[in-house]
Predict the 3D structure of the following.
Amino acid sequence: MRKTINCYDITGKRYVFPVNKLKFRPSVYGILIEKDKVLLSKQWDGYDFPGGGIKIDEKVNQALIREFKEETGIDIQVKKFLILHEFIDLPLHAIELFFEVSANNDQLITLGSDPELNPENQIIQAIDFLSLEQIKLEKPSNLHQLSEKFFYL
């Protein structure tokens, strides 16, 4: 017998998915601000905050420190929790945790990589500090959904 789950969107539309096709993805992201600029990762679909998935055996702070280092080459300290963002695009259900972070000393930013992807399939194109003015010049569709809460107040 094949197990399925019923899911409903905000309009009440019903979706039926096989349980083995659902993906629950908790992830963690860091917001690093220095000299009135925010560190962002330019990816294939626009800009995002450095961060990524939390492994099963990993604490939230450990995941953020690891992901930040992988993507930017920067060692960080996790400061305070800022906001939780829930994203559902079935069959994906993502819970995204955002934290304020600080860099340990002056460090060079290096273009990192995602160890889960092959070298030819990397999505990170650049890592850079952007001013609020630079960010506001981007189309909202090129920024993380939370950018409106952070940058367009």
